[in-house]
Amino acid sequence: MKYLTVGDLEDCLLNKVDLRRQQISQAVEEVQKVVHHLTTNISNQDIRFQAVPYSDTYNENIKVLAPSQFLITVPIKGLAGYREAREQHWRYYTLQGTRLPCPLRDPEGLQQWLEVEQFMKSLWQWHETDVNIDGDIVPAKVLLVFRKLVENAIRTCHLSGKVSLLGNRSAVWVAVETSAYQVELELVPTVEIPTTWSKKARWPRCLQRWPSQERVECIKSFGFNLLACSNYHWQLSFLRAEQVLLEQLDEDGGCRRKCFQVMRHLKEDIWCPGNRPVITSHHLQTVLFWTCEKYPHFKDWQVFSKAFLRLVRKLHKCVSQHFLKHYFVRNSNLFQCTNPTELDTVAQKLATFLKNPQIGPL
């Protein structure tokens, strides 16, 4: 039985990376047709939600977290001219609108409140009580409305044999049967805030050498998103900014992207397989960004074996410590809500690999 060393991995796995890309592309193609059909129907039911466009190239509304787990951002309409909240105040309401004797906790890390008055223009529907409490647009109520719309759309579009709504979850998840395998989608209503950078994202950091200042300004011009995926607080997201960083990794001819692709393949096949893995491609992407920032020079990314092992060591450190800082919002730990036992299992596999960097025949 022949084992592959890190030196062999580059050639062997890159062929598998290409095959994976083809399989994922086919799944994305099938999924986005379904999503476009569903969200077009949803938009016709409720003007506050916009259809996810169909794209022949890259679709920025579809994020592949794992081969069978996609994040779908569904744009919200009727909110324009975003401004940061001018003053802080306590909230004393439940999701049912009753009064509380003590205030709700303040948002932390990637979370924030969202008031309808933060927008210079807003549809009157965003002031309605089905989504609004005391002037706040409440994500849990938005999700409740959205879930009913998704359920109606599946039935109206005659997709019941292909798409099923997954229950017992606060977020809106559906399972889609593709020609190859089943894919689970999290459909997330999303407020897109272009051209404005969040004050919570104190980036770039002092004396940061990667990316360049010109690239930083370009990335910040894409703004950020707010995702409805919890009860009271909206979650900050920087999907566009992260995609720009990924697309322009190796302008100097380095092997950053190659290292990321091979690490992702090993994660999915060996270190953390499964339909809903504790480690997603977004975690790996964040590890890559931090490593690129620490090692900004071309010479650090010339030799694949050295660069790849450096990246795996960084991943092992974060997983074993149960701590991975968000790249743009440093006081947010991306592992805060993950299962520690599952993280420990992955950490053990990574430690075994690093002691003897080789794998069995693929």
From TrEMBL:
Annotated InterPro entries: Mab-21-like_nuc_Trfase, Mab-21_HhH/H2TH-like, MAB21L/cGLR
Superkingdom of the organism of origin: Eukaryota
Transmembrane annotation, as ranges: none
Pfam families xref list: Mab-21 (PF03281), Mab-21_C (PF20266)
Domain Mab-21-like nucleotidyltransferase positions: 58-248
Domain named Mab-21-like HhH/H2TH-like: residues: 255-351
Family matches, as PANTHER family: CELL FATE DETERMINING PROTEIN MAB21-RELATED, PROTEIN MAB-21-LIKE 3
Family to which this protein belongs: Belongs to the mab-21 family.
Protein name: Mab-21 like 3
Gene: MAB21L3
